[in-house]
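Thanks for the sequence, V.! I ran Platelet-derived growth factor receptor-like protein right away. Repeating your input here for the record:
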Amino acid sequence: MKLWAVFCLALLCLELQNGSCQATKRKKDAAESSAHPGGKRARARQPALTSRKGKSQSLLTQVLDKGRFLRLGPSTTLTPGKSVELRCKGTNIGWSYPTYLDTFNDSRLSIKHSDKYSQLVLTSPSAADTGSYSCWVIVCDGTECQRDQDRTYASYVYFTDKENLFVPSAIHFEIVYLRPDKPAVVPCRVTDPQVEASLHREVPPEEITANQTLLTFDPTKGFILRNPSADLQGVFYCKAASKGTPQISTKYELLYVEVPSGAPFVSLGASPEMVRGGDNVNVTCTVLGEPEEDVSFSWSYPGQDKRPVHIQTLGRLVNRGMGHTTRVSQSILSVENMQTIDFGNYICKAKNLNGETIVMTKIASS
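Predicted structure:
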């Protein structure tokens, strides 16, 4: 019996020692946790970089009634007729807006700058004012100033009008050029992002079905043709409906372009080919290029600044068959009563947005 009692007392002492050790360890762990906080709780007290960036990207706002402001997102839907006031914080701010407001010198648009912000006001807006409105900070280094791309803020504004589901255009018949090397856009933009539109050929009458790969619709751009081909040439229009009679957009003439983008393809020739003193000569510089691309010409010739010449520039669209359309641009330099000083090298330089080409022909006395 005494042996059993001694054994029980020994077990009791062992349990008491273990409990004391565990309590001491818990207190130590708690003290270390208090001195070195970790885990999600510590990170939550530090502002994340993404949240800072988000705040800095919201400088474009709309002024509402009673001094309230609305930060504009990527797109905004407004009601036409009510004046719109946009503000962009900063001391040196630039703006962009639908280009036709500048084209027609629209007095409804005004921009004012102050010490803390810049203000854009558009009075009596209509469906035609639908488009991208953006502002940016202008950074200057001495006399050189440039746009700060990291602090540019934009919002596409829809002025929704049930009577004008498509953004009105001053041009009632537009030409869209199809190229084999890049997408083409049929620009039937809508005034409501929820409107569903469809693309139709006039002759033969048929709907061109959107398939998310070759043909897609973007309400801010129109129908995008990913891989245009000569099969899509012809007259097209867009159709949309919203709880009423379907509406039709401006009509578009789709023309296929044979010549891909690049520097001008130039040919140069003189007429007549056999020239004598006293003859009249025409030197023609011809460029075969894209239908809507402007080409500029410049000349160098033997009697330059000493003999009078006449220079005429012409341009026309040529259907080269199989639906291929090309623009032919010409610059014709005419010399009357050829003299000794007029014989020599005639150089034509043709330039477009993609580069320039220089060609030369020599006129010798026969």
